[in-house]
């Protein structure tokens, strides 16, 4: 009598294994695609902002309006360059807006009143005013860096305190008044200050050239020099950087000096454009610079980001702000929207980090 063998049916676990593997593969692929989109978010944001306002606002893409926006992009862009290097080390600089106002008042003081020695008054030429103002801005950054590195004051507290100190000093320059009509006098040899903010070279505004030059220099330093690699290393793991023998204090000190230097340049540009030194110039500029840096992909914890991304972030912030002004959005709502942009940028950055870890673990 012949026997017929009946094969056992495959277990349910074995039947579902191919489906589970396929689902996991699809999930990993979706995570990779989303991660790529998040890495390119700054370009997506820039295109979206430009398209939205070009459709909803009349004369948004006219030549005159583009030139005005270029001036605003220059201001926030230069500030964001210095802020990027500070944040890459895991720090923050809240005093840059006040430094902008102080630098403008300092330049106006040198041009209008000079420095008196008894009956003799020393006036400075425009190049000398620019040099001295940049040195003053760098000195403010040096004080910030010294408080943080030598006295171990938290960057937030140190720069917040300097925000008030420097703004108060700007108000004290002329008892809360302004220095206006900074055209200078030919007899004193201090004319030509307006060229810095309003002059052109090869058809392009000098402030734009300054932005391009500083962007290129900061990009080369951050990616092509040991100093730049040390900046990233400090932001990634400061303790490990110390044990590796890096001069962490010196590097962080120079980063804050550079941030103050960038703020002084912005103060000179704005004062030159307006031909007036105002003590409240630069108010809330630090928030816009931080928003540009975060939106450009630099992590607030430090160690990750790029100067180029921050400058593009400055383009988004400036275009968004100008677009809201042209649309008639009130200043109150502009503040709300700017705050939401910062929060959303940080949330997206956190999402990108989690996705990146998930993709790395999966591979």
UniProtKB/TrEMBL annotation:
<feature type="compositionally biased region" description="Polar residues">
    <location>
        <begin position="1"/>
        <end position="10"/>
    </location>
</feature>
<feature type="transmembrane region" description="Helical">
    <location>
        <begin position="73"/>
        <end position="92"/>
    </location>
</feature>
<dbReference type="GO" id="GO:0005886">
    <property type="term" value="C:plasma membrane"/>
</dbReference>
<feature type="transmembrane region" description="Helical">
    <location>
        <begin position="253"/>
        <end position="271"/>
    </location>
</feature>
<keyword id="KW-1003">Cell membrane</keyword>
<keyword id="KW-0813">Transport</keyword>
<feature type="transmembrane region" description="Helical">
    <location>
        <begin position="332"/>
        <end position="351"/>
    </location>
</feature>
<dbReference type="Pfam" id="PF02653">
    <property type="entry name" value="BPD_transp_2"/>
</dbReference>
<protein>
    <submittedName>
        <fullName>Sugar ABC transporter permease</fullName>
    </submittedName>
</protein>
<keyword id="KW-0812">Transmembrane</keyword>
<keyword id="KW-1133">Transmembrane helix</keyword>
<feature type="transmembrane region" description="Helical">
    <location>
        <begin position="129"/>
        <end position="147"/>
    </location>
</feature>
<feature type="region of interest" description="Disordered">
    <location>
        <begin position="1"/>
        <end position="25"/>
    </location>
</feature>
<feature type="transmembrane region" description="Helical">
    <location>
        <begin position="98"/>
        <end position="117"/>
    </location>
</feature>
<dbReference type="GO" id="GO:0022857">
    <property type="term" value="F:transmembrane transporter activity"/>
</dbReference>
<feature type="transmembrane region" description="Helical">
    <location>
        <begin position="201"/>
        <end position="221"/>
    </location>
</feature>
<feature type="transmembrane region" description="Helical">
    <location>
        <begin position="42"/>
        <end position="61"/>
    </location>
</feature>
<dbReference type="InterPro" id="IPR001851">
    <property type="entry name" value="ABC_transp_permease"/>
</dbReference>
<keyword id="KW-0472">Membrane</keyword>
<feature type="transmembrane region" description="Helical">
    <location>
        <begin position="153"/>
        <end position="173"/>
    </location>
</feature>
<comment type="similarity">
    <text>Belongs to the binding-protein-dependent transport system permease family. AraH/RbsC subfamily.</text>
</comment>
<keyword id="KW-0997">Cell inner membrane</keyword>
């Amino acid at each position: 009598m012949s026997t017929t063998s009946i094969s056992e049916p495959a277990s349910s676990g074995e039947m579902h294994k191919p489906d589970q593997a396929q689902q996991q593969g699809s999930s990993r692929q979706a995570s990779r695609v989303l991660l790529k989109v998040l890495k390119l978010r700054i370009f997506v944001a820039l295109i979206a902002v430009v398209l939205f306002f070009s459709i909803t606002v009349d004369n948004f893409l006219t030549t005159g309006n583009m030139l005005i926006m270029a001036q605003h992009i220059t201001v926030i862009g230069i500030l964001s360059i210095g802020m990027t290097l500070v944040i890459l080390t895991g720090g923050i600089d809240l005093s840059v807006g006040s430094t902008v106002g102080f630098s403008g008042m300092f330049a106006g003081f040198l041009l209008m009143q000079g420095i008196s020695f008894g009956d003799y008054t020393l006036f400075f030429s425009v190049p000398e005013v620019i040099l001295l103002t940049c040195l003053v801005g760098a000195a403010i950054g040096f004080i910030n860096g010294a408080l943080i590195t030598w006295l171990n004051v938290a960057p937030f507290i140190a720069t917040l305190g300097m925000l008030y100190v420097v703004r108060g000093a700007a108000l004290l320059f002329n008892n809360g008044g302004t220095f206006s009509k900074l055209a200078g006098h030919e007899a004193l040899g201090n004319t030509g200050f307006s060229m810095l903010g309003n002059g052109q070279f090869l058809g392009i505004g000098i402030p734009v050239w300054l932005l391009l030059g500083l962007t290129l220099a900061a990009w080369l330093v951050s990616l092509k020099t040991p100093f730049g690699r040390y900046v990233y290393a400090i932001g990634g793991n400061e303790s490990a950087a110390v044990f590796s023998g890096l001069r962490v204090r010196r590097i962080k000190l120079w980063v804050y000096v550079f941030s103050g230097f960038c703020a002084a340049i912005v103060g000179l540009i704005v004062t030159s454009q307006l031909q007036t030194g105002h003590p409240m110039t630069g108010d809330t500029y630090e928030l816009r610079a931080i928003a540009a840096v975060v939106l450009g992909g630099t992590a607030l914890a430090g160690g990750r980001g790029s100067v180029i991304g921050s400058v593009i972030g400055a383009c988004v912030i400036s275009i968004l702000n100008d677009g809201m002004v042209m649309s008639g959005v009130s200043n109150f709502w502009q503040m709300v929207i700017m705050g939401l942009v910062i929060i959303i940028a940080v949330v997206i950055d956190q999402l990108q980090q989690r996705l990146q870890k998930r993709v790395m673990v999966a591979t």
